[in-house]
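Is this the right way to post structure tokens for a design question? Let me know if I should format differently. Anyway, here goes:
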């Protein structure tokens, strides 16, 4: 099968972005710097996809690369040193003739600590533990018109909040915090506007961290 390469836009640091890989496909994101720096790159495919993420310099030299351990497993490229000013490429490539969506996030020294956790499975609660001044991203594939319930339950007195992002990485719910500290936050019967990869962010209102469980249930 012939490989395809799609050039994407600039990859802004600290911003959730969503991509879509075709069979034997690759997408190339661009990152431009004016001075030497180190970056972290996180990529997570939807539940049925495996991929490889690669950071390259302008000459095509590979600075870092990592392959997902299995379908739906996240890839992390930590502390990748970009040695000089200029343009760099982050390449995301599907494996084993797979196709599907993925999320990508590039972090630099001055960006907030957003961490990819994993894909949510309908009806299965997942445990997490927020460090101070960090938020967690979870993902699920949704179909236009279906409804979902999303519940975040603190295992202590954390004051949790939720955000929900659409398949373009734009916020559908920017800040959901209707309950007091120590009580669950719940988005009920939310109708998904389109088919694709959705992201759920779990955070703590005072940036204090805390243990919790998150649950996604389809209607």
């Amino acid at each position: 099968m012939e490989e395809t390469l799609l050039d994407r836009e600039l990859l802004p640091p600290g911003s959730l972005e969503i991509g879509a890989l075709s069979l034997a496909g690759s997408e190339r994101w661009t990152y431009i710097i004016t001075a030497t720096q180190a970056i972290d790159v996180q990529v997570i495919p939807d539940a049925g996809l495996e991929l490889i993420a690669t950071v390259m310099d302008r000459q095509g030299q590979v600075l870092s690369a990592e392959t997902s351990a299995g379908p739906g497993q996240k890839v992390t490229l930590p502390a990748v040193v970009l040695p000089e000013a200029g343009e760099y490429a982050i390449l995301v490539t599907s494996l084993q003739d797979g196709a599907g969506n993925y999320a990508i996030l590039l972090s630099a020294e001055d960006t907030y600590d957003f961490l990819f956790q994993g894909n949510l499975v309908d009806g299965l609660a997942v445990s997490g533990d927020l460090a101070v001044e960090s938020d967690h991203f979870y993902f699920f594939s949704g179909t236009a018109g279906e409804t979902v319930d999303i519940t975040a339950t603190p295992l202590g007195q954390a004051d949790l909040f939720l955000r929900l992002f659409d398949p373009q990485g734009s916020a559908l719910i920017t800040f959901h915090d209707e309950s007091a500290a120590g009580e669950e936050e719940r988005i009920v019967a939310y109708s998904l506007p389109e088919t694709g990869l959705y992201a759920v962010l779990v955070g703590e209102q005072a940036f204090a961290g805390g243990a919790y469980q998150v649950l996604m249930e389809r209607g």
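Format looks fine. Someone answered above. Worth noting: The CA atoms of residues 100 and 183 lie 36 Å apart. The chain has a mean pLDDT of 96.
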